[in-house]
Amino acid sequence: MDEVITPEVNEVTQEDILYLKRRLYKKINKITWAFFWFTLLTQLASIPIVTLAHSLSQTLSLPSELVNWLVTDISLYMIAFPIFYMIIHSLPDTPIHTPKKRLNIPNILLLSVVCIGILYFFNIFGSMIASFLTSITGGEANPIENYIIGEPIYTVIFACMIPAIMEEIIFRKMIVSKLYPLGESFCIITSGIIFGLFHGNIVQIMYAIPIGCFLCYIYLKTNSLTNVVILHFLTNLTGSLVLPWLVTHYPTLGSWIMFSMIFVAIVYVVRLRKKITLDPLELPLSEKDKRELLFKSKGFIAYVVLITILAGIMLFLPSSI
Questions:
Q1: pLDDT tens by residue, 126-168
Q2: Residue 67 to residues 8, 56, 76: CA-CA distances in angstroms?
Q3: Closest CA relative to residue 98, chosen from 176, 24, 171, 31
Q4: Residue 89: exposure state from Cβ atoms within 10 A (0-12, 13-18, ≥19)
């Protein structure tokens, strides 16, 4: 088992720290390589699947929108995810120290408003950057919009429900269980960055990183996957279906609600920062040392390069594709 054994603080030597760093680097590197392969295999698997799916859709008269969603989810969760799981399965799990706490309905609603406010706040900056780049390249910065502007039932199932469940399992439960010995702050940063980059386009990366960090914080403090799945679902539902519909049909009301949510999110996060406490656990490493292990790992560098290439390809693809 790839377990990290932490020596007593008063007995730590430089050799102990170097040994510990090597062990932790191997673990982090394995996890980040797993996400590299998860992303790459998803893209590669979609090529033959999309050809087969469109052939079947013509035979079975399936809506093209449904076919596109099925191609995405089959590539992600039926082909790439099992391989991702096999790569990291051997790494030991560490339970969260916090007792389980189910959030009540008022707290769920408040935190979902905060998540949505975070989404739209950072979406403003992401959209500005994307608009500038696409005006130069003529491409498409956020192709997922083509999917969610369609049949509402498909949006609810494939853009809201399935991602909420699977992404919280992968980016919160699995990441935290493998990296919890490195401390809560490290888990939050790692979960947020890897989750955000996985979305693969500039607009979504900009807001998915802070949302991923916030959801990871909630997961750590409540030790409940159900809580973050519900929050994720409500955020997806509101951001991809409810608010776009309101802004389209009732622009003044929709805009007022959106900016009110942004205001609530800013106030909540500012107040939270004043009283936030994160458990560093007992590793004799600084937070800077831990972050360096992540950012300098070959797997993370490869993952960032791959995401950059994919995002760049989207920017240069014609928007009609």
A1: 888 878 877 776 666 555 555 555 688 988 999 999 999 999 9
A2: 56, 9, 14
A3: 176
A4: exposed
Distance separating alpha carbons of residues 303 and 195, to the nearest angstrom: 12
Cβ atoms of 32 and 194 within 8 Å: the answer is: yes
Q: 142-166: buried (b, 16+ CB within 10 Å) or exposed (e) per residue?
A: bbbeebbebeeebbbebbbbbbbeb
| C-alpha radius of gyration, the chain, whole number | 21
Q: Are 319 and 142 in contact (CB under 8 A)?
A: no
Say if residues 245 and 258 touch (Cβ distance below 8 Å). no
Asked whether 221 and 189 are in contact (CB, 8 A), the reply is no
* Geometric angle at alpha carbon 18, from 17 and 19, rounded to 5°: 90
Give tens-digit pLDDT for 29-42.
999 999 999 999 99
Q: Which amino acid is at 236?
A: N
What is the rounded distance in angstroms from the CA atom of residue 151 to the CA atom of residue 237?
13
Query: Is 2 a residue whose pLDDT tops 70?
Result: no
- Whether 213 has a pLDDT exceeding 60, the answer reads yes
Q: Which amino acid is at 77?
A: Y
Better-scored residue on pLDDT, 148 or 50:
50
The residue that leads in pLDDT, 314 or 255, is: 255
Tokens of 320: 């009609």
pLDDT at 4 over 60: no
For the chain, the farthest-separated pair of C-alpha atoms sits apart, in whole angstroms, at 71
Run of H or E residues at 243: helix 243-249
What is the rounded distance in angstroms from the CA atom of residue 253 to the CA atom of residue 129?
26
Inter-helix orientation angle 298-316/14-60, to 10°:
30
What distance in Å separates the CA atoms of residue 157 and residue 144, rounded to the nearest whole number? 14
Would you list the domain boundaries of the chain? 12-316
